Amino acid sequence: MTAKQSPLFLGIDTGGTYTDAVLWSEEGGPKGKVLAKAKALTTRHDLAVGISGAVDAVLEKAGTDPAAIKLVSMSTTLATNALVEGQGGRVALIMIGFSEADLARDGLKTALGTDPVVFCPGGHDVHGNAAQLDLSGLEAALPELGRSVSGFAVCAYFATRNPAHELAARDLIREKTGLPVTASHELSAKLGGPRRALTTLLNARLISMIDRLVAATEGFLGHRGIAAPLMVVRGDGALVSAAFARQRPIETILSGPAASLVGARHMTGLDDAMVSDIGGTTTDVAVLDGGRPRLDPEGATVGGFRTMVEAVAMRTFGLGGDSEVALEDGALTPKILLGPRRLVPLALAGMVHGEAVTAELERQLRAPNPGRMDGRFAVRTGVPDRLAAGLTAPEAKLYEAIGATPLALDRLLTSNAQNATLNRLVARGLVHICGFTPSDAAHVLGKQANWDAAAARLGAELFARRRDGRGQAIAATPEALAERVLVTLTRWSAEYILETAFAEDGLDGAATVAHALVQRAVDAHPGIARLTVALDRPVIGLGASAPLHYAGLAALVGNGCIVPEDTDVANALGAVVGQVRVSAEARVSQPREGLFRLASGQTVRDFTDEAKAIAAAEADVRAIVAERAKDAGTDNAEIDVATEFKVSTVEGQRMFIEAHVVAVASGRPRIAV
Q1: What is the rounded CA–CA span in Å between residue 583 and residue 622?
Q2: What residues contact 634, with CB distance under 8 A and at least 6 apart?
Q3: For 448-472, b where at least 16 C-beta lie within 10 A, e where not — what string?
């Protein structure tokens, strides 16, 4: 790099289907300049393959020396997709001071599923006073748990006021098993034990996935001679170092969508817009207000679970180019249904596996009648064998029968019980289902041509000959079916955008209203009550397939739809133009009159003077956030501290209840020199 040359920035986005890469320079005006962009298929069995494919293509297009890259920043939808699809490693949940009844709150029992849970006496009260801790039950269970889980989640009662019991359990687990442990106080300072436990559980499940992603990226960069810091986009759009993200992968949920918001604002210059980002697995819809994404104060909701992760107020729907195409059950004229599960498109499976896929599709087409499992295959995802720990005997038997080459389901499955077993393997992230998707429909119509169009058409023929309630084929031709699928996807996209707008406006029943309005617009049946709807701001359409799927969107949402030139790499671009932003919190409470208790970080201290306690709290959070900012990847952070008091007035006298102190540090990430 010459003295006059601006540093080069490499952005990477690892999505469910594609890995994108973009090379960006600060030169070229306020928006900088995209020097090159490229895509490669995400390779879940070895993420480094997809990353290297995209980055190598970018470097070749730009003709750039890898050593000139001074910062690498990455966003990912892997964590989001895993939660939407119910995937992740098997984790043991350790609950200290809680009862089994607490599992019924905040969806914790549903999220836990069949994963093990251990209850231990202990925990603290609201002022940080300890109950008697007993970890003997945990210690007795650790030998078996250490062999059957990939990590641990520890949550203690009121750990945000005193984390001592979580720390004791964490240290014991690490000593006895050596496996990753997530403690709830490390992720959130908010009260609400079951929801904090849920957040901790999901974090522990995601550790191995994000660890593999970071390791694959770091390994690739090392091999290419790129000696630059690696950053990861968090769910609120901020950047953090890769090491920081490895410990707190839950904070990368909505990472890809958050990066896309940053990218959308950067590319269009619009301060107010609805942003809809369609990928392979999900559609993510959010609002730009005054140039900043709206944040969800209650925590991000993904896959039906409300977490304690501060993130963009993003509504994530299981709708994308690779969504499962299904048929409504029991209707005379059945509707096309999409998602929420992601399938491997037949066109993609055909491109990768060739005759192994197309020969089976042709065999099924020769059958005189359509089969229930036509056009469906199972294939291993290629994850390490250790992640298959804890399978039941039927699961293990079926998993052994599935290999690296897609196997037709009508050859694999012999009973409905086996179908349920297969779905459990899919939920564990061990197996993919291949089947017909909107991406296949686009190939059938010649609107997409990067995979095997012949395999897609065979799948469309099989699906089109399925019967409605009258016994008639649901579509006359594969092309008619494909057109119907794509129209459905655009229609559902409009419904989800309007649903998000209504929900942001606080309207109850947002989904029902959105569906009714879009139905009226599409079917051209205004009825007695004429209903129209128009957004007050345009839609920014993002994603590689946005130009296709959003072409007819404007008429359904009553405002313009802008698809930027570099929409296909909005996430990767957003990853390199963001800032590091971290926070730290402390609380001062009054257990009894004249005693002020400060809980900050992992320490609890008592003061007899309110002013001294507040000053200590502000000093603590400033020091903690400065250290976190360095760990997160910036050396020049600006720190703001805000203190909020809760007080009451009794007989004219001010009575201190609690103080909440928050420090926020922000700055551009450090770059290689």
Answers
A1: 9
A2: 579, 580, 665, 666, 667, 668, 669, 670
A3: beebbbbbbbbbbbbbbbbeeeeee
What percent of the chain has a predicted confidence (pLDDT) above 70?
A: 95
DSSP-derived letter for residue 77 is S
Which of 21-25, 140-144, 419-423, 502-506 is predicted least confidently?
A: 502-506
Euclidean distance between CA atoms 538 and 272, whole angstroms: 8
Is residue 609 exposed (0-12), middle (13-18) or buried (19+ Cβ within 10 Å)? exposed
Query: Please, are residues 284 and 270 in contact by the beta-carbon 8 Å criterion?
Result: no
- One-character DSSP codes across 303-328: TTEE-S---B--EEES-STTEEEEE-
Of 40-49, 323-332, 595-604, the range with the lowest mean pLDDT is 40-49
Task: Please give the distance of CA 632 from its chain centroid, rounded to a whole number.
Answer: 20
Structure tokens at 167: 């720390």
DSSP β-bridge partners for residue 345 = 435
Q: 3 pLDDT exceeds 60?
A: no
The CB density around residue 298, as the number of other CB atoms within 10 Å, is 13
pLDDT digits (tens, 9 = 90+) for 144-167: 999 888 889 999 999 988 999 999
pLDDT mean across residues, the chain: 88
Report pLDDT for 250.
81
Interatomic CA distance for residues 120 and 113, integer angstroms = 20
Half-sphere exposure of 367 (CA within 13 A, CB side): 16
Beta bridge partners of 625: none
- Return the DSSP state at 27: -
Q: What is the pTM of this model?
A: 0.70
* Burial of 267: CB neighbours in 10 Å, binned 0-12, 13-18, 19+: buried
Q: Is 43 exposed, middle or buried (0-12, 13-18, 19+ CB in 10 A)?
A: middle
| CA pair distance 66, 252, nearest whole angstrom | 27
Percent of the chain with pLDDT over 90: 47
Structure-token match 């009451």, residue found = 648
